[in-house]
User: Fold these one by one.
Assistant:
Number 1:
Amino acid sequence: MSTSPTPPLTRSADRWLAGVCQGLAMHLGWPVRLVRAGMVLAVFAGGAGAVFYGFLWLFVPTADEMLRSAERRPVSPIAPAVSHGFQPPGSGAAQEVAGASAVTLAAGSAPQGSPGEKAKGRASGPAGAAAGSGASPGGKRGHTLPYAREILTGSGLLFLGGILVARHLGVNVPLGTILPGAAVLAGAAIAWMQLDDARRTGLVSRSGANRSGGWIRLLAGLAMVIGGVLVVVSGSGSWEQTWLALLASIAVLGGVALVLLPWALKFWRDLERERTGRIRETERAEIAAHLHDSVLQTLALIQRRAGSEVDVVRLARAQERELRAWLYQHPGEGAGLMAERLRTAAAEVEDATGQVVDVVCVGDAPVSEQHEALVQACREAMLNAARHGGGAVSVYLEISAAATEVFVRDRGRGFSLATVPADRLGIRESIIGRMRRHGGSAEILSSAEGTDVRLRLPSFESTTTTKAQRAEETR
Amino acid sequence: MSGTAPEPAEIPGIRLVIVDDHAIFRSGLKADLDPSLLVVGEAGSVDDAVRVIAEVRPDVVLLDVHLPGGRGGGGHEVITSSAALHGTTRFLALSVSDAAEDVVSVIRAGARGYITKSASGKDITDAINRVAGGDAVFSPRLAGFVLDAFGTSPAEIADDELDRLSARELEVMRLIARGYSYKEVAKELFIGIKTVETHVSAVLRKLQLSSRHELTHWAAQRRLL
């Protein structure tokens, strides 16, 4: 059994009646004549053979059906891997363990009209042997027992058989008690099977059954419900009384519900109001915490440094920037985009120099390597403007399909590039040289009324959009 | 050099109403403004503002975008409620807000300009003079909004005239966004300062009347349509 996989149990096309015996013989590896003879003999043993034959006829698919269902529902991708994993040379021990457990399972289920065998044949085809063993792939899916359906059917049949045997032996079985209980259990089992996997996990997690202790609670609750039903059904005896009692309880429950409904609604509304109130309270607390952490701290600092105008302006400006970002920007918005990058650079310059740098951006684009160089060059220009210009610095970024342009303007006394000493690399290298290296250009116009630095980076690919263009596209 | 460039004709005795819900800011602003301006009224809410403006009929109203009271419409509600005075009273929006919809909403309601609260007293005085003279006042940031909303490519066909800016208007807007004063713009483009003012007024008109998607979207959000 462990060396050659058992052929799945199917009804053979080569048949006398329904192909049951032929299929069973192929599956068990017995001669077909022996099986047929056994079946005929069993028919005379109180009709057991006929029942067994009928059962298999009904529930075992034909070879064709089997093929089709195998096509529709491919074997779990893990199953072949597991079954092959057991067969490399030198791992005989594992192989035998797997084989042995498979045999035990098959042997254990054989007397019950072999539902286990059938299941193996139906569920996973060639991988059945491996899947049936302890290391089954089914075991990886949480609580789901492999072949739960078949095991349940089997235990039900065993139970039924046990009762029949006991009665035959003269034991008095209280059928009146056992049958309703069995019916309840069977109903619960069927209902459970109707649920799909997702709903089952949902149910289990909602009832808290996936936690330790949860199962006990759930089982205890179920046992009590079932016990209650049993007492009602078997204890009082008469059905009429039971129905009356049921109707009466429903009427009482309905009455209670009607009486309590307004109160319950009010309670519910109060709860909702309290909840929204709490949410608002949380929000207010968050805002208060933010204001405390930022604004109040900064105000305290400003009061302490009131003597130094530069410090006050710097602090106020940094705080304003931070608060603005908090108020008007959605977290994560603009991250990795050019405008945001340039604003950050401008903020750094403001912090470093204490001069106001006003940034106006039109259009936006992701920051490329060239853009990064542009930002660095612009940063240098902003630093120069803030240090030497004296006064507010205006920065304008325009990203169009053709190019990315940045203009940095200050209103200082101006300077002439020719008079800048040769060893000062700020403008020559950090601005002009850097822009040239990255395929852009830099132009510096300075007069007595201020200095204008124009940085231009032609687009290499058209990833840029202005707001207007974006809107045009989405229209 | 800052701020000395624009020299709008000084109109003697401009009568001004300041509308802002922060009393501290109002008094600070009054102290900063040029003494030639006559502050004839103050208001701290939409209802007060509408009443005061109707009462004193000022030349210019310096109007905060965010105001309490009224139907919650803030600055643009003041402007729309004072529609009867639009011929004589001009509105200049003043705001700390960076949000485009705030700015555009007051401009579309009829404000003649927009300036940030961080501007110096001198700059605000200049802006008030300019608005009183019938011109439009664009801060660099407003110019940036306009360029973003209208696009940076010039109009080619005549029939979408309201929805696009002309090449010249684009140049003017770009220079203003770069921090140029009107006079500097005029010098840069070799045109007269009056021409610059004409272009800016034309852009303001387009901003107020255009049905461009971005603008109507903002307007719709603020229930201005």
Number 2:
Amino acid sequence: MSKPAYKYLRPEDIRKLENFEFAPRALVEGYLAGAHRSRQRGSSIEFHEYRQYTPGDDKAFIDWRVYARTDRYYLRTHNLETNLEGHIFLDSSASMGFGNNPTKLEYASFFAAALAYLILANNDRVSLQIFDDKIRHYAPPGSTSLHLQHLMHLLETNQPGNQTSVAEALRRAYPLLKRKGTLVVISDFFDEPAAIFHALSPYLHRGFRIHLFHILAPGEIDLEQRGLAAFVDMETRGRVIAHTGGIRQAYREAMEAHQRGLRQLAARKGIHYTLARTDTSYFNLFDQFAQ
Amino acid sequence: MNVVFLNAALTGFLALALLPLLVHLFARARPPEYRFSSNTFIRRVVRETMRVRKPREWLLLLLRTLAVLALILAFLRPFWFPQKPVGGVFQKRNVVFIVDATASMAAVEGAQTRFSAACAEVAHGLSGLSASDTADILWMRAAPEAVFPALSNNLRYLQDAARRATVSSETGAIAPALKRALDLLENAEGRREIRVISDFQQSAWAGVETAVPKGVELQKIQVSHEEARNTGIIRLRCEPESPVTGEEVVLFCDIRNYSPQARHCSVYFSGGETRQSQEVLLGEWGAATAVCRVKAGRPGPMAVSAALDEDNFPGDDKRWAVVPVRESLRVGIYETPECPDPALAATWRKALAALGWARVEKVSALDSGDPLDILMLAGWTGEGTEAVQSRMQAGTAVICFPAPTAAALAAVAKVTGAAPEPGPALRWEEAAEHTLRLADNKADLFRIFTQGNYGDPSRGHLRARLTGGRWRENAAPLLEYDDGVPALARLGKNAAFTWWNLPVDARWSDWAGQAEFIPLFGELLATCRARTGAGESGIEAGEPATARIEHEALLSEITLADDTGAACPVVAKGADGRGFASRDPLKPGLYAWNFRQTPIAYSAVNFPAIESDLRALPAAEVTRGNALATLGGHLLQDANTATPLWPWLLALGCLLLVAEGGVLLCKD
């Protein structure tokens, strides 16, 4: 694969990523032979086991050489190798523009670009959906270098948009995903947790592995001391006048409660939840896939 | 409310009490904007905490406002008078500044004079008045003078007047100044205040009552900070007061040291053709008299002066006097038939004619009123006692040979105050021969005889005399008979009366025929006048100088010039065309009255001696009479009448700030 210079995929990052392997814990079904074993038995070159024939089995898998020696019908089974299909959901609402060097959106874009590169490097397919309260851009799954170039272009031309509605975006994206795979949602999740997980339920039913990456800037986790200030909402433009000294503790507690709620709901549904601070390296986030 | 703000000029700063409220309002209205990702949680948190935070914010605002208010009020330095009724704090104010412009205010303290400090206090006080307030400045001199005839709100002009004012060399009329100030405030509405700004010189202010009517506040501001030290000439007098040409004049210069250290100083005399200097040692707070003898020159006014080396307070380091020198003495001889020595008057006339510097006038009546230097009474029986007394009071010396009567003796006792010894009555006695002896050989009368050049003044034999004329007190015998009977004695407290008990008739005496008689007689005439106790001539600064010339003159022909030749305005005094006076009060110095550019008289204007003592009244004395006193802008607490509120306000302000901090800590 060529290594062109992208904004969110720098050569030094690519060198680092070559040491990574995207190894999701679950094998997913694919239509191309790939590096990932499937639980489904099928035609492939890797032998799995012999088992006795039972009515209904495909007679094509009977090993006739064993029948000649033993006069019994044995089926020769192989592990089916299939490709991974990764679906990256990137929140591009106005609130993702918060933060300095990098903003949350830049941080998320770096992570999404690296993740896409890693998937494609394993000859897997990856799709990208950029959303705010609706799907703003959709790149269907692909595995070519041209596809990577298209994804990078989408990320680079992307700007923070409107209000966040993760749940709405997930509902709208559902019909677009033909095959199950790994769903990676990168967002600040300024939405109702219950609505988000309600929107994720159809994906779970279809067997998607879901990873939620909660992107937060340090200034969102712990309010900066700014005295009396008019907080202007980047999404709604609404103003709230408050003294940071007076609300700092309560805000921290509210944010922690929000994170705790997301983490508990995710754990209950078997979804991976990861808090990602923009002041830490996004390479650490790949550890989540190694679990 | 009996509250006085010493720093009332800062009242405007009370508006700063609104500062916390304004900060609160404006800070909330336009706080800095902060673009934040989502206000969802902030809004929720604010909504939940607002219920507690709102009352706390109001409490903080209240505490801050009260703290600022208390601190500002503390800087206004309020005093509370529990009893003294004063006007409202925010009423219209009417202020009369009585500024001491007397000579002592010229004393330098630090980098400025007391008067400069007083003017600065006035300017400071005026700056504290609002446009609706009225004020006036009253300069306290010998004659108090107000800048405006009535109270005015032209404060800028008053400030200019205070800036331009100069100190005088005069004494201050305290009571008239206070009365004038009360007159100015009489019809004023609102608060009425008198501020006396002075050094409160002890010599001028001790015992002075400064009571003011109810409803008028009196504030005394003392601008003297330290005990200013000074040495000055307090008097210059001459004896005799009116010498004749060629006569020796003794100048007495009284010097005073107003400091706790002994001092050496040089006194420089100047008179006629004589220049002398003398070293004088002055003890701490002590006085000394320097003496100089000068010879009277040509007839006419002779200016004499005495000066010290200049010190920090030079006003009193020089003093002048004018000595009228005359061509001859005026001696009147009054003779009665009762004189036991019929040759006495004639002998006196002959002797006076021999002297040459005495002009004899016959006195037919004692109350004739003709001015005389010496009145010689031959056979005085006691008539015209009052006339003799009044002449003596006017400076006429008397030489008396009384008639041998009890009335004469009583009259002598009356005019001199001397008491005769009880014993035999006064009588003429022709008896055995007696000789004379000196009763007091150190007396001035015998000074020229001490070298022996003029013989023995007691030489001679006498066979008649008055007996019974012995004196117990107020008597200084000069010559006496060999048995102790007084022959020549000075009587009275000022020794202006000479008791003559010496017959000159050849039947009874050869004393008048001795060579020593004429010198002794001349010395008697000279010294009897010198003991008249004449005071200092001249006037004090602040009084107009006057002159009276012998002939009529036009006002344009008369000029008055100081010692630098600068002319002073002159006005006519009286309708006879002979009296003239200076139009304005004069500064200390020697002034020459000129008729057609020729000096005809001098006026010595001297520094008022009372102003030389620069010591100030103690603070307790200044505050006497319920007046609020300040010393150079610093408070002198009058514990009896006023309670300072500012320490309490300061403490309250600090307490409120601590409480505010406590509330803030509780919040966090």
